[in-house]
Predict the 3D structure of the following.
Amino acid sequence: ALCSGAGAEFIAKAAAMGADAYVTGDVRYHDAQHAAELGMHVIDAGHFGTEFPVVASLAERLREELRGEGHVEVLADRESKDFFSLA
């Protein structure tokens, strides 16, 4: 299962739906412990790492959906960087 951003609150729901692994960001210690108790693996891919990759696709989808709704400009962030780094 996958939830972008901070999706630890949905760990139990993912397990109840049969997920054996869950990818999200911002997982706290006790959330990970709860997932382990439920027999589910958790991958904390980071808040930025699970959201930023879909920005361009989401912006294009919004442009398509809002076409013909008057003047609506959809801007996609292409310059943000993750605050956390290994460097």
About this structure: Residues 13 and 82 are 28 Å apart (CA to CA).
